[in-house]
What we know:
Elements: H1 2-18, E1 22-25, H2 29-35, E2 47-50, E3 55-60, H3 61-68, E4 75-78, H4 85-95, E5 100-103, H5 109-118, E6 123-126, H6 131-135, H7 140-162, H8 170-183, E7 187-195, E8 215-225, E9 228-229, E10 232-238, H9 244-263, H10 270-283, E11 295-297, E12 304-308, E13 321-324, E14 327-330, E15 334-337, E16 340-345, E17 348-351, E18 360-361
Parallel strand pairs: 1-5, 3-4, 5-6, 10-18
Antiparallel strand pairs: 1-2, 2-3, 7-8, 8-9, 8-10, 11-12, 13-16, 14-15, 16-17
Helix pairs in contact: 7-8, 9-10
Amino acid sequence: xxxxKDRLTRLxxxxxxxxxxxxxxxPTSHMVWLAGADPHGDERPVxxxxxxxxxxxLMPALNANSVRQMTDLPFETWTDDAGPGEALAAxxxxxxxxxxxxxxxxxxxxxxxxxxxxxxxxARDFSHTTLGHLRAMKDAAELDTLRACARLNxxxxxxxxxxxxxGMTERxxxxxxxxxxxxxxxxxxxxIVGFGQNGAFPHHHTGDTALAEDTAVLIDxxxxxxxxxxxxxRCGWFGGTPDATxxxxxxxxxxxxxxxFDAVRPGAVAKDIDAAARGxxxxxxxxxxxxxxxxxxxxxxxxxxxxxxxxxDVMLHExxxxxxxxxxxxxxxxxxxxxxxxxxxxDGAEILSGLPRTIWTSRR
Length: 364
């Protein structure tokens, strides 16, 4: 429990720094990070309110005994026949006066409105300036878990490429990867397998397309291990000599990845990382085919701040963890995306994966 006490202390310090009187969390990953509690989520209002003097839950009585095993923080419970109103009023009174509130951006809208209607017209913001800011800087234990998950993902992606055979479907390859996760104590988080022109869809839905000779293959996959996820993309060419344009595009994407890595350091701005990758691709004449941001943060959630976009002025700090994943997508032909998760260190970027980004080629 010491880690959660430390996080609560840090949150209160951050609230003081930014002038936030109250932080309100729903049953989301924010609550998991701060209190280690993961209540059953349905339409019954659940929230954790934090002020400088009090931290406590609004909790349906139905769930109280179960959640009590996860946290020592106090509860204001309510029953279905009474409703949450009186319990919420008691919790707000315990927290003290609040003229500013930061609301969990992932909280259900009806929960948030219930809270705001019970308060006296507070100035409001989302929790990205308080708890989100803290979550974005991973501690040593979180980084160790993310490294372990990344290395497990390396082996699973390798198993997927090595299993490729003529006639296999994209779903077959995903099944190989998922079996590797499960065998090694992890849960599949997601898997995109794109054969040929399907790789040109950045968020392709893995399907029943069968593998043929002389085909580009894109695998973007991640698992969840000890509560944290992984995320990585590698590309390959199955059968014969890779297409010359495929090799050219792969080389450009690798240069873009390297340029982005080189721009990472404490104090750098997120949009400058995006610009470094995007500039390489644009200079090679493929700018119109890089159709998404360069990266997203990764922690308990597979997508969380900081986001590495062309418009983000967020300054990077040591401990930030995010993807670098530029891509070039040629409609009707193929797509190439190379993705690694990095953490910001005093010296630049540490790559969590140990798997080279070398384009995989068939060993048959």
